Amino acid sequence: MNLVVAVDIGGTQIRTAVYEPNDSTPLKLQRVESQALKPGVYERLVKTIEAVWPGREQVTAIGFSSPGPLDPHRGIILATPNIPEWKDFPVRAKLSEHFGVPVHIDNDANLAGLAEWKYGAGRGHHNVLYLTISTGIGGGVIIEDRLLQGYHGLAAEVGHTIIDPDGPLCGCGHRGHVESFSSGPAIARYVNEQLAAGVKSTLQADPNLSARQVADAALQGDALAIAAFARAGEYLGIGVANYLAILDPSIIIFGGGVSRAGDLLFKPFEESLRKNILHPRYLEDLVITRAALGDDAGLLGARALAELRTEGVKIPP
Questions:
Q1: Range of the structural domain that residue 218 is part of
Q2: Is the pLDDT of residue 315 over 70?
Q3: Do 211 and 272 belong to one domain?
Q4: For residue 213, what are the contacts with CB-CB under 8 A and spacing of at least 6?
Q5: Who contacts 96 (Cβ-Cβ below 8 Å, separation ≥6)?
Q6: Residue 13, strand partner residues
Q7: What separation in angstroms does the CA of 250 have from each of 215, 231, 315?
Q8: How far, in Å, CA of 89 to CA of 278, rounded?
Q9: Ramachandran quadrant class, 263 (left: phi over 0; alpha: psi -120 to 50; beta: rest)
């Protein structure tokens, strides 16, 4: 039997699962804390994979989803803040040697996009833009049924496109990225800045303020909270107008916790998108929707990558 093992690793959890062909329900699923700030992450990863490894059945490949930046062509984690001990870490070679099967890796946002295209909201579309809006902003792009990875494997870093070179400092250390305006921390930071400047609000200045708290205040009519989401939506619309001019997808899929704010974010986003788009033709028949797979997107994306690479279907080598 041609089984695939999928791995989704992050700063909080390691999730592993084993899948049969044409069945999105795993035969076995394992979830453990990654304890990413402590030594031994790789050893914990191996044990978690071994916990789902089938007995006599045949595993054809492992698919691996990880935070980036990483090099999917060489199978190396370059440097991910979520797992500080993994710097230039050859995870593909190590896992392939240990388990004796091919290992295919990519970053978590790319693979969430791949999963939505194959199993979720993007089914039936050939050109897909996936955006996750959370602590950061990431993306995955499908062009003519092919996952966009790029020459260095670093394509589709949509959250780090510059929309204002004099804008706020992004978590990556550069200024004016979409992420620095429209991510969850960016929304909370803007509220704190306005409160420090004397703007009135039901919210209180708090270094731990979350976008969820801002959304709750906005739903209660707080003017500053509403303005914070309007600002985030406006800049998100500018960014997406740029992406449409480059990619021209038939569907945009939004995932991530901040996207659950709904109209607070997406009404100003759509107004900004219409205002900033190069030509209205880009918006004709364009589907804008929410992600369908939730927390399973990483595992299913890793599974899809492994299966498609095994089949040789339009995935870069």
A1: 122-291
A2: no
A3: yes
A4: 188, 203
A5: 62, 75, 102, 103
A6: 33
A7: 29, 26, 20
A8: 41
A9: alpha
